[in-house]
Amino acid sequence: MVRPLIAVLNGPNLNMLGLRQPEVYGRATLDDVEQICIQAAERLDVAIDFRQTNGEGELVSWVQECRNRARGIVINPAAYGHTSIALLDALLAVDLPVIEVHISNIHRREEFRHHTYCSRAAAGVICGLGVRGYALALQAMTDMILDEDDR
Ligand code: CA2
Questions:
Q1: Which of 7, 23, 81, 93 has a CA-to-CA distance to 122 between 20 and 30 Å?
Q2: pLDDT category, 144, cuts 50, 70, 90?
Q3: Beta strands in the chain (DSSP E)
Q4: Atom of ligand 1 nearest to the CA of 18
């Protein structure tokens, strides 16, 4: 059986993880996050495509590319979550289940981080649980795909 593909997309500045602001984002690097996702995917028997970009347009294109390719999208949109209607439109148009992840608890932070456009397109949002939020999102997405296949 072909393993279902889940796209794990990361937005701007997440390539800096672990290098600065460990008090906010912890000490794990983006490579560590990828390893966490690879291990979770092996355990869950799904395939992942893990990517990061600093470009809004590239992130929008990656979401579009998921159509007819992936079964779901786990996305940490980073700051584009707070600003990008283009990203929201892409997530709404792609017609796939979306789970939004934030490493930090955006609701305990500055007011401008409390709202994310992406949340309107998301089946669920995980924030404040550190990088383990990615593994939890993959678990939830796998459950959602299995539920869909059962129907
Ligand atoms: O908590 C999250 O995962 C965020 O999506 C991270 C974004 C931030 O804009 C969101 O409000 C919440 C920032 C990612 C940048 O991460 C850095 C890590 C280390 C040093 C500098 C930036």
A1: 23
A2: very high
A3: 5-10, 47-52, 72-76, 98-102, 124-127
A4: 19
Q: Is 103 annotated as a binding residue?
A: yes
**Mean pLDDT, residues 104-113:** 98
Beta bridge partners of 5: 47
- 84's torsion region: left (phi>0), alpha (psi -120 to 50) or beta? beta
pLDDT at position 51: 98
Mean pLDDT of the chain: 97
Q: Which two tokens stand for residue 2?
A: 């072909």
Q: Kind and range of the H or E element at 100?
A: strand 98-102
| 61 labeled part of a ligand binding site | no
pLDDT recorded at residue 124? 98
Number of folded domains that form the chain: 1
Domain range spanning residue 9? 5-150
Neighbours of 64 (CB within 10 A): 13
| CATH number of the domain to which 144 belongs | 3.40.50.9100
36 CA distance to ligand 1 centroid (A)? 18
The residue type found at 38 is I
pTM above 0.90, yes or no: yes
C-alpha 51/C-alpha 58 separation (Å) is: 11
113 is in an annotated binding site: yes
